[in-house]
Amino acid sequence: MMRPSEYDNLIRTRALEEVPQTPGAIEGFLKDAAESLEVARTVDVKRPKQRFILAYEGFYSLVQAVLEFYSVRTKESGRNWPFFEPQRT
């Protein structure tokens, strides 16, 4: 599927970068979003901060799934950042 022209504009302005899709990433992001929603539904409505955090995390996962679908990522955002070195134990 072709990505919207707005994405190409963001690549051109270097806000996004084109990257290959990571196998299983979209499914993982969608699973995270669904789990956030499931947990948010169990949190007492008198605890708005906790519900907000879960909603924020779920929405973030959805956004990441969309970016992954269109093979783009925000610049210097983790997995492909050259200075990111996972700690080895």
Provide structural commentary.
This protein has 89 residues and is mainly alpha-helical. The protein has one domain. 52% of the residues lie in helices and 7% in strands. The protein has 3 helices and 2 strands, in the order H-E-H-H-E. It has helices at 5-12, 25-40, 48-69, and strands spanning 16-18, 72-74. It has a two-stranded antiparallel ribbon. Helix 2 packs antiparallel against helix 3 (48-69). The longest helix is centred in the middle third of the chain and has 22 residues, at 48-69. The radius of gyration is 16 Å and the shape is elongated.
Brief overview:
The chain has 89 residues and is mainly α.
